[in-house]
Amino acid sequence: MIRKLKHTQYRTESKLLYARIHLDELKNNTEKWRASNFSRAHIESFIFHLFGARDALLQEMNIYYDCKLDIKNVTDEKLEKHFKKSRIQCHELQELVTLERDNGSWLYIAKDMRNHITHRDCVTFGFFAGGKEDRQVHLHRPKSQASLDEDYLETFEKWYNNMCQLIDTLRGHRGCK
Q: In whole angstroms, what separates CA 51 from the centre of its chain?
């Protein structure tokens, strides 16, 4: 089990690394304020990998808590059901799910964007010319089309840092039953 868990943790870290690579390439792109294919591909890849780290963390929970869910069937809902049935209180999963279901949280917005670009359409933007936001690009929330308050690179940097911190924090809850 320890070997399997270490491999899964490595996968979580790899997803974070891949997200970081895409974010750094976006930051180094001299035409980052344009909606080029390069930018769109990297934006979608960043979001996929960032949220993939969350999915890999669920796999870690499956192994750590010996849930025995098939690798293809690991979801937060199925883990919740397993923990409830087993009378295990998993603070790790509770904290993740609470954050993810709060429609004002960064994780909710990231998940919403990931689902949108996977199943519906591309990310939408607002481009600014002139004023204090000159050459900034703001992401729009998929459902409401409300603009996020900062340049997308700042948003992504925050999401990346938040995900790294969240994973570290949640791993620290392990063993609490």
A: 3
d(CA 30, CA 27): 8
Tokens of residue 159, six digits: 């999401």
- How far apart are the C-alpha atoms of 18 and 34, rounded to whole Å? 22
123-171: pLDDT as tens digits: 766 655 455 555 567 777 777 777 777 888 999 999 999 999 999 999 9
pLDDT digits over 105-120, tens only?
Answer: 999 989 988 887 787 7
Largest CA distance in the chain: 58
Those residues with Cβ within 8 angstroms of residue 2's Cβ, 6 or more apart along the chain or in another chain: none
Cβ neighbours, 10 Å, residue 154: 13
Q: Which residues contact 133 (CB under 8 A, 6 or more apart)?
A: 151
